[in-house]
Amino acid sequence: MALDLTSLPRPSRDDTTVSTMVRGLVGSEILRIAAEIRELVAKGNKVCNLTVGDFNPKEYPIPDGLRDQIGAALQGGETNYPPSDGVLDLRQAVQRFYERSLGLKYPLEGITIAGGARPIIYAIFRAVLDPGDVVVYPVPSWNNNHYAHMLGAKSVVVTTDAAAGFMPTLAQLEPHLSSARLLCLCSPLNPTGTMLDPEALRAICQRIVEENRAREGRGQKPLILMYDHIYWVLTFGKKHVTPVELVPEMAPYTVFVDGISKAFAATGVRVGWGVGAPTLISRMRDVLGHVGAWAPKAEQVATARYLDDVPATEAFLTTMRQRVDQRLEALYKGFQRMKDAGLPVEAIAPQGAIYLTVRFDVVGKDGLATNDAIRKRLLEKARFAVVPFQAFGLQEDTGWFRLSVGATSVAEIEEAMPRVEATVREILGAR
User: Fold this and answer.
1) For 75, 163, 360, 369, which has the most beta carbons within 10 A of its beta carbon?
2) Are residues 285 and 336 in the same domain?
3) Which of 392, 384, 391, 394 is nearest to 414 (CA)?
4) The Aminotransferase class I/classII large domain covers which part of the protein (predicted)?
5) What pLDDT, in 10s, does the model give residues 351-379?
6) Which of 230, 233, 214, 234 is nearest to 222 (CA)?
């Protein structure tokens, strides 16, 4: 007879069996919202789900070549531990990929592989920061607050605004750079789908170089830039730029976060990489080696082979961009029509990634006092599921939301837009 342990205590915020850090770690707001959507769907409701930064394989299958190479690698017995910094063939393939696509040729010692981009971000925080060090990041942004909390760092939050596409400017960052150890930037940005202007990024990078020259003279540790560009191949009408191409002197201070998750709709394949100065990458490799956050070996071997098939990757990315752009444009045009009709909605034209930034300017109307109240009304009345910017660190209830097109079709979007318009009109018409 099995020992019945079902009466064990359930999780609690004041549980003394866990650390203070874990007790203070906030769970994912997006996962909480996802639970509500699952409940609605289970009751038979059809929901236009724009919440998850993931891909529905029916809408966005991974490349045929990548899928076939994974199978071939498994059949070939590639099932043992990979090297702690990644399979050599993959590191070489990433090196060639960056050289031909970004014009950046890094040494192999400056490339490390992990099980997706999240372990790379964790390794950067862990390799750079000591407890109490200052990490500066703009909001809205994805998860920097949680990583800073886990490392015991001091967060300095820079609130951005819609006028600049929710991207930070040097003027906003400048007061905090002299005390910072790590600056976190992301372009194209999750959650907004907007991109850093090249001149704005150049100015930020020039300031970092100046700061680090001064620190070197004082014998202080440099300011490091984490540049998350996991969405860089998914851009629409704007050219992606990197800190190092704009200001080559940034090379010792920049670490790139990247991988196949978004570019190749392969979020579950779990292959990511960090690229930067070998001095820092080698320490990240050591961290990842102890954590064991390696990408599976078969997937690494397969990704190496696929990245080197340039015609196949370019053809896939062309199709991928078209699919994402079609959905983003369907949303954007739908909201533009509402705005032109005089409704209080606003959308920022899509620039990159898989996200659209939308504002429902109805706070204070029909009892809707918060973004979360608006979200719930849209879900209940329009079966339209979105994520408020509070999930990305922006505190004010100003009606801004992230809409992700990874899990839906153009037809579902077009079917949902009349429901959204009707809901907004109902809110405005309430007495």
Assistant:
1) 360
2) no
3) 384
4) 46-418
5) 999 999 999 999 999 999 999 999 999 99
6) 214
- Judging by beta carbons within 10 Å of its beta carbon (0-12, 13-18, 19+), is residue 175 exposed, middle or buried? exposed
Structure letter (DSSP) for residue 82:
P
Q: Cα separation of 242 and 224, whole Å?
A: 14
pLDDT at position 364: 95
Helical (H) or strand (E) element with 340: helix 310-340
What pairing do the DSSP bridges indicate for beta strands 48-49 and 134-139?
unpaired
The last residue of one of the domains, among 308, 338, 358, is 308
The model carries a pTM of 0.96
Enumerate residues 6+ apart whose C-beta is below 8 A from 35. none
Give the type of residue at 350: P
296 and 341 both lie in a single domain: no
- Beta partners for residue 48, in sequence order: 384
Distance CA 169, CA 178 (A): 16
Q: Is the pLDDT of residue 128 over 90?
A: yes
CA 378 to CA 419: how far, in whole Å?
A: 9
319-344 pLDDT per residue, tens: 999 999 999 999 999 999 999 999 99
Q: Do residues 303 and 342 share a domain?
A: no
Q: Tell me which of 308, 340, 373 is where a domain ends.
A: 308
pLDDT digits 0-9 by tens, 48-81: 999 989 999 999 999 999 999 999 999 999 999 9
Between CA 270 and CA 287 the distance in angstroms is 18
Read off the amino acid at residue 65: G
Asked whether residue 431 carries a pLDDT value surpassing 60, the answer given is no
333: domain range? 24-53+315-429
Cα dihedral: 329, 31, 134, 174 (round 10): 20
259 in any annotated domain:
yes
Residue 430's pLDDT is what? 63
Q: Could you tell me which residues come within 8 angstroms of residue 20 by beta carbon, excluding any fewer than 6 positions away? A: none
Q: Among 23-27, 86-90, 107-111, 157-161, whose mean pLDDT is lowest?
A: 23-27
What is the domain-level CATH number for residue 192?
A: 3.40.640.10
333 vs 10 pLDDT, higher one: 333
Number of domains making up the chain: 2
Residue 19 lies inside a defined structural domain of this protein? no
Tell me the DSSP string of 219-274. TPPPPEEEEE-TTTT-BSSS----HHHH-GGGGGGEEEEEESTTTTT-TTT--EEE
